[in-house]
Design a protein that fits this description.
about 110 residues; mainly alpha; 5 helices; about 80% helix; ABC2_memb-like; transmembrane
Length: about 110
């Protein structure tokens, strides 16, 4: 399953900087409350997941994955695990941005 997660991350590497800028802009431009964090997590995880699925459909990776000795449940489970890993990434990034803003003196905005 780790190889499938790595594959998903490698598929996303071309556009990962765009996602990173989007996350930073989304979290830095709005108040740091639970609703903003939830919206950022939902938006980023859905965008990345759907882009990954779209890239797999475009390159017909399903045919390749079905020819490998992998269970179908492992392939599907890797997509779900990727969503949770992306959510943890957004939470960590929110914490880092909040810490940087507090150190920079923008604590009243958080």
């Amino acid at each position: 399953m780790l190889n499938l997660l790595k594959k998903d991350l490698l598929l996303q590497k071309r556009v990962s900087m765009i996602y990173l800028v989007f996350i930073i802009f989304f979290l830095a431009s709005s108040p740091f409350d639970e609703a903003t964090l939830l919206m950022a997590v939902l938006v980023v995880t859905y965008i990345v997941t759907f882009n990954s699925i779209g890239l797999e459909e475009k390159s017909e990776a399903g045919v390749l994955l079905n020819s490998l000795p992998l269970k179908r449940s492992t392939i599907v489970l890797s997509k779900y695990v990727m969503v949770y890993l992306l959510a943890l990434f957004v939470f960590a990034l929110k914490w880092i941005i909040g810490a940087v803003m507090r150190v920079a003196g923008f604590g009243s905005l958080i």
